[in-house]
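Tokens as discussed.
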């Protein structure tokens, strides 16, 4: 057991155990943990995703006509882009949606005009929404939806005319032929790779599922996910090698006995990973795993990468065959490395479906420059540095970094003060409800362990070895019943979760000694993101009302080693306007400023200084917010 290290690393074992049994909730400091029989703050049963689904169904039922109801269902009442939902549909449902309502994600296929109103119904179908958020359609070959799906509400009846049925039959016949050819091609590609290469693919994909944030993918009606208790892949529920994992169960099965769904899943995930590492999988979240869908994703990426001037442009894939898509994936991986120093990549996250879209940011415009200027002025007033931009402030620290290791203001070190003042400035400048930054409490301990190459010891460090400074605006209490105590408790719960994130990412940067491999961790993040409606699935986000957010992770250099995702800056809004690209660019400059100071502090420690972050624990958050 790793004992708490907050505030006093010199606690006796007995005192540490007593402290470990105390509540860390700011409003319950000094009380025994778990003493209450009911939660202090109740969350509605339908809070988050269930509530959104309920709202969506109610709006669909109330829509003036069926096409508008379908628009509501596809966008989850305006909360996600419709094309994500359309790309989640199995073939039968996809083409039913096309012939009935003229809706498709396929830009290269002409849309069939819907039949005129008033045509006699040759078949009465249904459309509904299941509890995973997917639109479901009853087609002529299927029974009632209620017998096959967990529906959010009831169903909307959908009349099919004779023309609909004829168009649908023709579309389905062509799609079935393409599907047979695609599966055959994928089987040939896997067979040509050989048994050893297929084994490596499965091992790599198991690692991806284990080390990647939650994803939900489809192959026809079959679901592949590492998400919570629905797991069919290695993740939080299924350990590596679990017989219920769709990947590990294939390891000793001859290729000829693999199902078509498994063949498509392995090929498509492999192609995605080849194009940009494990993170690319999340860009396929809640869509179908077929070569056509992968081709659509990679083509959009190709166009985005080719929009960056200079270098060797990536040609389009010759076809949607696995070999051609493999060549495109490899070219995109090379192009990504080439453009990364020139532009800022980031991801949009659509929280209800956990879907991510990689974007290439434009240049900082007036909005980003105004935000940086305001933040710079606020930080400059509070710290012994000078400059008119964040870059100049960083250069000022680099010229004379010694103060980072000395007391400053109310803090034991200048680094501690810099983190707090920058986060506080961000709260005001970006007009957010919460701003925060996380990191490691003891750079001294980290450097000692790195010098000894004691990676096993680092793997044992627990949550209290990390910190997160959370600064809410006082007005944020309006989201929590006007209670400053509730606000302080929420800030601390956010801080504790961010400490977990630091713990979860740190060892992903270390050599894969057995103790590191055995420990739970995610691949450290490298690019920032903007999230929309993230108060859906994550229980902490639901409780803290985290609707819109920016996450800006940064690497820190320690003893010549790059630690990706070592720290970040996060900005949260509980309501109001979502963040935009200019907000993100300014936030990323801000986090880079904190990261540079942290790297300089690590250099001071390497030269003999001792830097510990003592504050930002639960007591500090209580005193700052409710005290």
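Sequence:
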């Amino acid at each position: 057991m790793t004992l708490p290290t907050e505030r006093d690393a010199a606690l006796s074992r007995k005192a540490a155990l007593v402290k470990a049994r105390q509540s860390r909730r700011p409003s319950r400091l000094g009380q025994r943990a778990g003493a209450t029989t009911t939660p202090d703050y109740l969350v509605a049963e339908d809070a988050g995703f269930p509530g959104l689904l309920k709202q969506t169904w109610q709006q669909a039922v109330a829509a003036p006509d069926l096409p508008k109801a379908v628009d509501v269902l596809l966008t989850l009442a305006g909360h996600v882009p419709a094309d994500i939902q359309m790309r989640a549909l199995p073939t039968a449902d996809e083409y039913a949606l096309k012939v009935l309502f003229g809706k498709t994600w396929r830009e290269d296929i002409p849309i069939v005009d819907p039949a005129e109103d008033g045509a006699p119904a040759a078949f009465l179908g249904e459309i509904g929404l299941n509890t995973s958020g997917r639109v479901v359609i009853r087609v002529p070959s299927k029974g009632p939806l209620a017998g096959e799906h967990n529906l959010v509400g009831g169903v909307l009846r959908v009349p099919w005319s004779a023309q609909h049925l004829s168009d649908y039959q023709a579309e389905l016949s062509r799609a079935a032929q393409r599907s047979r050819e695609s599966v055959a091609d994928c089987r040939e590609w896997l067979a040509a790779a050989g048994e050893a290469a297929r084994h490596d693919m499965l091992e790599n994909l198991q690692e991806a599922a284990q080390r990647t944030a939650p994803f939900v993918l489809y192959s026809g009606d079959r679901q592949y996910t590492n998400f919570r208790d629905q797991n069919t892949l290695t993740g939080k529920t299924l350990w590596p090698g679990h017989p219920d994992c769709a990947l590990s169960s294939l390891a000793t099965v001859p290729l000829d006995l693999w199902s078509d769904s498994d063949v498509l899943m392995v090929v498509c995930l492999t192609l995605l990973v080849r194009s940009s590492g494990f993170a690319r999988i999340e860009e396929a979240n809640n869509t179908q795993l077929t070569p056509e869908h992968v081709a659509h994703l990679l083509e959009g990426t190709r166009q985005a990468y080719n929009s960056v001037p200079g270098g060797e442009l990536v040609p389009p894939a010759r076809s949607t065959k696995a070999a051609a898509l493999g060549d495109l994936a490899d070219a995109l991986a090379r192009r990504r490395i080439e453009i990364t120093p020139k532009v800022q990549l980031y991801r949009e996250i659509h929280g209800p479906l956990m879907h991510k879209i990689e974007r290439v940011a434009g240049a900082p415009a007036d909005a980003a420059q105004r935000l940086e200027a305001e933040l710079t002025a606020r930080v400059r007033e509070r710290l012994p540095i000078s400059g008119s931009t964040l870059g100049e402030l960083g250069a000022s620290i680099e010229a004379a970094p010694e103060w980072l290791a000395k007391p400053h203001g109310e803090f034991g070190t200048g680094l501690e003060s810099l983190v707090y003042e920058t986060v506080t400035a961000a709260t005001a400048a970006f007009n957010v409800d919460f701003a925060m930054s996380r990191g490691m409490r003891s750079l001294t301990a980290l450097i000692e362990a790195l010098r000894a190459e004691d990676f096993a010891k680092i793997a044992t460090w627990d949550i209290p070895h990390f910190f997160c400074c959370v600064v809410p605006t006082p007005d944020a209490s309006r989201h929590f019943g006007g209670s400053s105590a509730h606000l302080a408790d929420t800030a601390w719960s956010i801080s504790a979760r961010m400490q977990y994130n630091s713990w979860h990412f740190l060892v992903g940067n270390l050599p894969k000694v057995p103790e590191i491999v055995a420990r739970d961790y995610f691949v450290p993040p490298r690019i920032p993101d903007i999230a929309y409606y993230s108060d859906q699935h994550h229980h902490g986000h639901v409780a803290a009302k985290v609707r819109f957010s920016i996450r800006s992770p940064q690497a820190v250099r320690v003893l010549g080693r790059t630690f990706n995702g070592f720290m970040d800056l996060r900005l949260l809004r509980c309501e109001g306007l979502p963040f935009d690209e200019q907000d993100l660019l300014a936030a990323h400059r801000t986090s880079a400023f904190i990261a540079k100071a942290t790297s300089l502090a690590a250099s001071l420690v390497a030269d003999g200084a001792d830097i510990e972050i003592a504050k930002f624990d639960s007591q500090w958050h209580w005193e700052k917010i409710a005290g």
